[in-house]
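Model it.
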Amino acid sequence: MIGGAPAPELNFDPLADALLAARLLALAPDKFGGISLRGGGPARDLVLGELRQALPDHAPWRRLPANIDDEGLLGGVDIAASLAEGRAVMRAGLLSEAQGGVVVVPMAERLREATAGRLAQALDDTDLALVLLDDGREPDERPAQALCDRVAFECDLSHVASLDHDAGAIRALSINHVGQLEDDQLAALAAVSAALGIDSVRPLLFALTAARAHAALHRRKKVKQEDLTAAVRLVLAPRATRLPQEATDESEAAPPSDSSDEPSDSSREQSGELPPEEMLIEAALAAIPADVLAQIAAGRMRRGAQGGGGGKRSLSKLRGKPLGARPGIPRGGSRLALIDSLRAAAPWQPLRRREREESTSTALYVEKDDLRIRRFEERAGSVTIFCVDASGSAAVARLAEAKGAVERILAQAYVKRSEVALIAFRGEQAEVLLPPTRSLTRARRALSELPGGGGTPLASGLQLGLQMADAVSSRGRTPFLVCLTDGSANIAADGSPGRAQAKEDAHAAARSLALRRIDGLVIDISPRPRPEAAELAQAMQARYLPLPMADAAALERAVSAAQPSPQLAR
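Modeled.
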């Protein structure tokens, strides 16, 4: 209940809503931009079939190839026809062929940034709609934000239990005969959008169009309460980033209006002219799955997902996912992109033949500027650097669990393209016990006779961890530093004893890690959580995890959960 209004009787059915969204999209594809379908399997196939059946027979339906280049997407020179005719022959791109229809984008969460940008621009400038097929398994694994902002509907079919649905014939319908929304209806939708934490104006515009389309679907000429409710449920609810309690508290604290000209909420509700704002908010909340609602309530909802294959990239000459070719000379291991080179040379053939006074020649003249080389994109490996406190009486237990965690992570090394390194600090300094490796045998041999005890040179351990992280980054890999400590240091960076200087040096080293933007995790392994370890994590700008009773399995799970997503190297 919000604002004293009873909750509407709404049964959230993700498949029914997805089918309804597909029918609305078919009414005005150019106004809605498209739909994003997450997961689903047979349910998603059912929605795609519904959309294709609802579209006009002449509407194009194209599927985006996984490795399409700019020429295939936007159009360019047809190399075969150009070579055959001796002149530049242009071919239409996929976006031109799909005008007035739909482009289906498989694995949209893995779409390259450049391709996502081209599609976003096409939605702004041309008359087509996108169907984003989202197969991501993690909450942050979504299509590029630029595309999500430009499609009206986001439907999650991951938990559909039944494929029962009602078909609807809508080809003869149009939203043109439906009147525009009234001012109070516009204000209600805008208030709901603000209450749900939706910052962009595009979803609000989509919601206005969805309300009119829903009215047209039910052959009404004016927008009614159920049309607004459907628009909120289909367009605004999936984009919610916060719960509307704050807005509700303000509305409850506001004094009642003395104006007798405006009808009360109760009279509006009885007449069915317009639902109160609270009813629309209840409709939105009823359409949000329970797990997503819990994430919003806990403040963990993130809408700014990178998508589009974001992340650190580096050049690979020989392997990985093919990218668009670029001008260059095939040397130093680079491969010649023959077709792209011929495509670049084709438009210049008539001019080059005239320059050589060989107008009847069939020779192909290729110059240095025509040459193109291949580019590839490969997933970058990661290196988990364990920086372990091996000092004091509890060192034996800590090191035993660290050894177990290293071995468990190395067991997954070949699957995740990851390496593990181990640094121990005790006595007066830190030392590298295990350089970055994927060899489980080597790791076991290095860890088998690790001693413990002595002072706690925490600063030395962090400095050595920073040096190793820099070396890892220079090789195009992603470092992740895991520090197992209670945060108490008693040996300064120069090896001299003294807690005050040791703490200052340790925090200085931690701030250096933060400045280099090294992702990290501080695991507090003291019997009880200590403020020193939390302060160290804050200085590192790393995650803090009190885990006093950790075993090897718990450490491995904690590290795996805290590590950033694998990045792509190009």
